[in-house]
User: Fold this.
Amino acid sequence: PGTAAELFGIEAERTALRPTAPGEARRALLRRLGPGSPLLPIAARALVGCALAGYASAAVGVGRPYWAIVTAASLYQANVTLSWNRALQRTLGNLVGVLVFAAVLPVTRSGPLALIGFCLFFSFAAEALITRNYWLGSVAVTPMALLVLEYAGSHPAGELIGDRVLDTVIGAAAGILTAMLVTNRRAAGRVETALAATELARAHAVQTLAAPGSSPAALEAARRGLTGCLVELRDADDTAAGEWWQRDLPQEEVLAAEQAGHRTLAATAIRQGLIAPAPENGAV
Assistant:
């Protein structure tokens, strides 16, 4: 029963997250960009990392420093661990993509139709792969970006390949170095704050459920408040777990709060008639 209630609570949480009013998604985005937002450390990393990558690439004398800036900007995820994984994927994908470019370049210079055909192929492959497997998507993006330059005229293959490799390495190095140096010291504190808020929201929801004369508006407010706290708690814990050099996180407390919160959320949603309990037939 406890597991089933938690699953119902998760479903109720996902239902509440779906935008229901026009402009709700835009207002949520603006709130995430306000003062004290957990996105601010990521924005700081992107600003410093992109600037460092651009300056370093220009100092080395690479002809296209904007490639290094794009590489650095593409690395930043919710925490350092995810950014490190993205850096490895981006670097590997670009290096393999350079080899693919070197292999198809002679064919593309045989005529404009061949150039157009390969550009369309790599564009389709990039769109199809980038959201499923980032490093494979990068393999397709790299030759496409290099082949696009051929529309303005032929360029020395060695120059294009050298610039792409150098910019990739410089951008990835500058990006991940910045991610490690610009620390997110507030990540653990955000988990503790979210944990306390979840406990308060759950206690309020339990009191609302226990009151015999609770109005539908009160139940809705309690459900939405608990849903928001559970979402914030999960997001905060996932982010903090991937930050390096953080103090120990209260993982057991977070797990217990989520389980209890989902059970309470399920009870509230069932009371409102938003979800129906599973039939008692022994099925899991």
User: Anything to note?
Assistant: The chain has two domains: 40-181, 187-272. The chain has eleven helices and no strands. The CA atoms of residues 171 and 276 lie 51 Å apart.
